[in-house]
Design brief:
With 485 residues, this protein is α/β, with parallel strands linked by helices. The chain has helices at 24-27, 40-45, 63-77, 88-91, 100-115, 131-134, 143-159, 172-182, 192-219, 243-266, 271-276, 282-285, 290-294, 359-372, 401-419, 462-484, and strands at 17-21, 81-85, 119-125, 165-170, 225-231, 235-237, 300-304, 309-311, 379-383, 424-430, 449-451, 458-460. The protein has 16 helices and twelve strands. The protein binds 4-nitrophenyl beta-D-glucopyranoside (PNW).
């Protein structure tokens, strides 16, 4: 029984936010409807071999047409908040003029959420750049940062009277290094110079949008919360006594964590990182004033965490099976200057993504952040979840025991981090629905709700029921404490 799980006996801060997350390109569909034009993911999915099974985001899970039904589902689960993204390619289709019909969709979504008592948690960039802007260089072009601030202003103009929680970027590491260097994500390039330019220009875009939205909100006397979501990891040296592994772990920590955290929170790139990537010209992208722009105060930091990374500086043993790849396109390292780094298995259980399951890593990460960044804003775990090969029972139920355990164990790991002093204010499970899992297409299912890809019917899995019970339990404990106290 899930009620016996340790996570059901934890105490939670009174205003802790329980939610679930999605992203526009992964769920909406209607890729060329309502004035929307190609995003880089629509274009990338048409490249042969780019996405497993030749899948595309064309229809995704048809959320564009089923939005009220999906919000009703969130309500039955008892979610406090719903984290979603707006599609830049829907709001500013060709990268130039604003599409009112696109804004109207998000306006209806926000109204529906507020009507259901659910806090809208909006992300402006979850990887779907208008293809028209990619054709002008995408994030390698500094101009895209200024276009982003205009897009942010357009969304704020339509929703700023109702949306209080704003996230600029989701996981900039993926949309820069995995898209421009590793090439597994759109735009599918293998260009470290462009990749590091993309990193800096996304930081700049974040800073420009923060300044713009803060100014607009202050001017209108509105209280908004601004932040960014990073995917952070513990880069664990495979053999902590081996200097080669320690050096590899330092490099991955620099590229994966500190390249984002330091400019945003401390106003400077780490020196060791700048020297590691010197030949790729990151320094030349940094113009006077950029770091001050980038490090403007934010109100929260979103942390996405799925797994740690066990890092070695030695090649993998020859008999080690290569890790899973979505398609047979050749795999390339997304890490400029640190391509030699390997990630050997340390024997932990793994999900269908081949990602390690290690809830203690999440505790460690959340506690470490507070210790390493004295000016750290409040944290929200904005994504965490797992893909497994679900089996549908004869009665239509999905008994996803592994996902249920994954979620409860990670929630418990967050409670542990809070006990150890981490300032964590919320948890969003990834994902509400099975959806378009980027280069994996529809093959990997992360939803706590199953989607039938023929009928688009939604069926809450056992993990959804467990999550709903957990939320209800956390709230009833609070109510009980309030009465006793
Ligand atoms: C995140 N990695 O992506 C994204 O924010 C979601 O859109 C996505 O569906 C979810 O996690 C599951 O993949 C990631 O390589 C992509 O470690 C890659 C990694 C982590 C997260």
């Amino acid at each position: 029984m899930n009620e016996n799980h340790a996570s059901f006996r934890r105490n939670w801060p009174a205003d802790f936010i329980w939610g679930s997350a999605t992203a526009a390109a992964q769920i909406e569909g209607a890729a060329h409807e309502g004035g929307k034009e190609d995003s880089i993911w629509d274009a990338f999915a048409r490249v042969p071999g780019a996405v497993a099974g030749g899948d595309t985001p064309d229809r995704a899970v048809d959320h564009y047409h089923r939005m009220p039904e999906d919000v009703a589902l969130m309500r039955t689960l008892g979610l406090d908040s719903y984290r979603f993204s707006t599609s830049w390619a829907r709001v500013v289709p060709g990268g130039r003029s604003v599409n009112q019909e696109g804004l109207d969709f998000y306006s209806r979504l926000v109204d529906e959420l507020l009507g259901a008592g659910i806090l809208p948690w909006l992300t402006l960039y979850h990887w779907d750049l208008p293809q028209a802007l990619q054709e002008r260089g995408g994030w390698a072009n500094r101009d895209t940062a200024y276009r982003f601030a205009e897009y942010a202003e357009a969304v704020y103009g339509a929703l700023g009277d109702r949306v209080t929680h704003w996230t600029t970027f989701n996981e900039p590491l993926c949309s820069s290094l995995i898209g421009y260097v590793g090439g597994e994500h759109a735009p599918g390039l293998n260009d470290p110079v462009a990749g590091l330019a993309a990193v800096h220009h996304q930081h700049l875009a974040h800073g420009l949008a923060v300044e713009k939205l803060r100014g607009l909100a202050d001017g209108a006397g509105r209280d908004i919360r601004l932040g960014i979501t990073l995917n952070l990891t513990n880069a664990v040296p495979n053999d902590p006594a081996d200097p080669v592994d320690l050096e590899a772990a330092r490099r991955i920590d620099a590229l994966w964590n500190r390249m984002y955290l330091d400019p945003l929170l401390l106003g400077a790139y780490p020196d060791d990182l700048l020297s590691d990537v010197r030949e790729f010209g990151l320094d030349e992208r940094i113009l006077p004033g950029d770091l001050a722009q980038i490090s403007q105060p934010i109100d929260f930091l979103g942390v996405n965490h799925y797994h740690d990374d066990n890092v070695s500086g030695h090649p993998l043993p020859a008999d080690t099976a290569p890790s899973l790849r979505p398609t047979d396109r050749p795999g390339r390292s997304p890490f400029p200057g640190s391509e030699y780094v390997s990630m050997p298995s340390r024997g932990l259980p793994r999900t269908a993504m081949d990602w390690e399951v290690n809830p203690a890593g999440l505790t460690r990460l959340l506690v470490r952040l507070g210790a390493e960044y004295p000016n750290l804003p409040p944290l929200f775990v904005t994504e965490n979840g797992a893909a497994y090969d679900d089996i549908v029972s004869a009665d239509g139920a999905v008994h996803d025991l592994e996902r249920t355990r994954y979620v409860l164990d990670h929630v418990d790991a967050i409670a542990e981090a809070i006990e150890q002093g981490a300032d964590v204010r919320g948890y969003f499970v990834w994902s509400l629905l099975d959806n378009f899992e980027w280069a994996w297409g529809y093959e990997k299912r992360f939803g706590i709700v199953r989607v039938d890809y023929d009928t688009f019917e939604r069926t809450p899995k056992d993990s959804a029921h467990a999550f709903a019970a957990l939320i209800a339990n956390a709230k009833s404990q609070l109510a009980a404490t309030t009465i006793v106290g």
